[in-house]
Amino acid sequence: MTSLTSDSGNRFELLVQSVTDYAIYMLDPSGSVISWNAGACRFKGYEADEIIGQHFSRFYTQEDQAKGMPARALATAEREGRFEAEGWRVRKDGTCFWANVVIDPIRDPQGRLLGFAKVTKDLTERRAAQEALRKSEERFRLLVESISDYAIYMLDPVGTITSWNPGAERFKGYKAHEILGENFARFYSDEDRLAGLPSRALHTAEREGRFEAEGWRIRKDGSRFWANVVIDPIRDPDHGHLLGFAKITRDLTERREAQRALDDARDAIIQSQKMDAIGKLTGGVAHDFNNLLAVIVGSLDLARQRMANGADISRYLDNAMAAAERGATLTQRMLAFARRQELKLQSVDCIGLVRGMAELLQSTIGASVAIETRFPLALAPAHADPAQLELALLNLAVNARDAMPDGGRISIEASEIFVAEEAPPGLSPGRYICLSVVDEGEGMDAATLERAREPFFTTKGVGKGTGLGLSMVHGFAQQCGGALDIISAPGLGTTVSLWLPVSQAQPAEEHIPSLDLRDSAPVPLVILAVDDDNLVLMNTAGMLEDLGHTVFQASNAADALRMLEEANVDLVVTDHAMPGMTGAQLADMIEQNHPGLPVIIITGFAELPPHASRRLRLDKPFKQAELARAVMEASHDASSGRLIRFTAPFDHD
To answer: So what's the pLDDT on residue 646?
Structure first.
């Protein structure tokens, strides 16, 4: 038995001596050290022969020794059977470490105190980490509490508020004790709560890792503010379990109001600019049309006076017709400027087109200006409307001539250019035909060049130009998918370049169907003419009657439909822009109720609804020959091929 006890004691001693992470040693009843292990040597810095026999109080700081803490620790262990505490302890070299200390009393079988077993663990690193964490949390708390421009607070997984900062108090109006424990949904309006926005925000943040939105939020006093809200989920770093949410709210009411004020101011400026542009447009239109009307009214007045005396009035009628045709040209230019001119886009041989209009160009420009062309041997076709392209080139040539009052030379050049990413303004990358009109004239300064494309802006004298030429060319180029480029400087002349996309198809053969009204007498038809303008209606009806047709008139679409129900007609000629029901809508109703009945739509607009583009149209203003051609085409294209005579009279109430 003695041998077993001795062996057991030796093993225990070996075990204690081998432990280096804990200081394990014995004290006698007075507190003197009577044993020492390797861990104690490592922690305290004392070898066994240096410390055995010394009182353990030397491991305490002077402050703790003065407070009697060593004696109190032994008394507590003896009285209560155990003492445990944490605190600073002192090494041999005078440095301190944070220790966890456990002291247990050792008694013999009879209960007499033999001494104490003392176990010490160095927790300095753990305490440093805890202290660093505490300081970090404290800094974060101070940071959050010092922020007043943002509401920063925490929510639990179901949206209950668990923290509150001064910014939240300032925005929302709640004190911390008033809001902690409440659900954050109270900050939403009744409509948003009924729509489920609060729970949707949390679910989005949990699912996607973030939620951000702007919207109205409600303060304690019931007032609203415009907020930017960001919600981020907070998860357990070890297992990823959702712990709650961090919510940051910013009051953007002032910024939103400032942005709205800025937008209103910008809209007001834009509206002012629009009104200024409209003023210039209407002023220019009124000026030019007043000039034309003066010619028309004056010529017709003179014609009426001379006709009463039996004199020849053809000269005055020619003057009135010329002025009316100039008005029609001005209208076409305005439509082109507004990019509402109907274009018949096709492949155009630019070289052939320019050569074909050479005589027209020279006769228009006059003998004092020479015209030369510079073209490559071969040039890809352009995607454009040939008639409008001729008009555009003629406009540019006239402008070039006017820039050289003493005569000079105009060059018309063409080339194919591939435009890359660094394209001129308004052009997409691709292949283009560049048609340029170059003059040797006075050129333009920067201020004039800046305004050159403006409608009704002209440097010519009063009555010598409408100011719509370049505007028309600019609008035409953009409708074709191209652009207009102007290069000019005082004394160096001007180069105006028309960029047109390269066509993917072959140039179309120009074919203008001829119709000789004298050789092909039209078959008399019964025609219903519809127009809300009585003067226009009377004029259209007069032209048709003069062609030998029977014409009945309706001043609106409803009357026209009623008349068609009462009797049969061969053709309907209707204006497009009418109140209540447009001409295109009337044509749809006629097609539905009277299949096969042809309809001609007369319009002063360039564009008809997409579904009406298949119908025969006649553009205002028109001459009798154009109206006759349209009537003949409509009667030949009628699907039934029948010419139905009028059999029942109309009621002309």
So the answer is: 30
